[in-house]
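Bumping with the actual sequence this time:
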Amino acid sequence: MMKKKILLINTNFVHKHTLITRLMVKTMVNPSLVLPYVAATIPPNKYEIKTINDTYEDINYNEKCDIVGISTATPSAPRAYQIADEFRKHGKTVILGGVHPTLLPNDAASHADSVVIGEAETTFPRLLEDYEKNQLKKFYYSKEKICPERIPLPKRESEEIYPLIAGVQTSRGCPYNCKFCTLAQVNGASYRAIPIKKVIEDINRIPRKFLFMIHDSSLTISTEYVKQLFKEMIPLKKKFMCYGSIPVLIRNEEIIELSKKAGCIYWALGFETITQKSLNEVNKNYKVEQYGRIVKKIKQNGMGVFGSFVFGFDHDTLDVFETTLQKVQSWGIDAAEFNILIPFPGTEIYKTFEKQGRILTKDWSKYDLQHVVFQPKNMTPKELFNGVRSISKKFYSIDCVLKRELSAGIFNFSKFLYTIALNSGMRLFHQTGYGFRDGASLTYLLDPVAFRNVKEKYIRGNDHA
């Protein structure tokens, strides 16, 4: 029997298929595990699978295939809908899934023959059975989240470019339920840890030495689990970066010490904001006074800190940008991302802003952490936009980047490599992100006139900045 062919596409708001893009995917980008997990659910005896990463690969709408499965997050949803509509014109059966279709299934439904809501491991096999019977339903939703023991190992060989740093997932679900985050809505509020034996098996299948263990809401939700995981990772001799919760790490220095032995190079920490009232408002059980202490503890153990910050909360005023920069520099954070608050559909903060009439646009392509899509409380949209640009420009100035990279120490090659990758990737995202989407390349780092022109073009195109 001839196998049917399934084309799986991971859409992205960046789809400039240049050598620079491919180089970034290879060296700087945290690889998505969505398609490898979906591919692992498809029976290989019945279906041939081809995957396309829209970030760097061209799409052939005349591709000979039976089913086109498209995964999308919110900012790439318009691009996904465009692709879906074109394939449907060519008579293909189109399935939409991922974060955005899960949050807004009716928004996706008009562009697809079927919509997969939530985790695909239980729904996609059922969808394929119905497809074989010509009984495809419009929506597929599993009320019960998949048992972690049944989560398959991702089919990593499905990607064309094998990244220098491979992604690993150890759990599903997030019990924290922060008001601005989509994790609980997509994967549920119940923490489900993948058996350590299976995680170790997955890591052993990865030929690369370097890992990104940041596909979990946090690696430290269960302290006993993460301690045992680190102990079993020690003999693997991998080098990795992972997410952690600040209050948990403050209380459990043993986790920090074990992570070092296991090969941890960087801890990624969601500081979010230096304003305590904002933390309280969005259900973050953090204390700002702990920030400097946790950075010091991690760095004393020879590891780096990647910090995540968000601006635009209701308690933020115009001084928050410069004050945050001073704090970050005084703590000695090695790399950071500075994002504009995005009220993603389905989150509590989105519902609040919509009720208050503060949502400025539902152009999903602007829900990318770089546009202002809502009315801030204590500043104008343009002031929020310019404030984030200002702090990122200062933090990622050439001299500051070089200083952080050199301080990592060339004799600690793994940390040096991660520091270069993080700082280079974040500098490109923050300082040429607007140009990159218009076809910019690394030349904008070297050509101030070209960079200024494309920057002005981007700002003019931002309706609310």
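The tokens above came from a reply further down the thread. Residues 433-463 have pLDDT under 50 and may be disordered.
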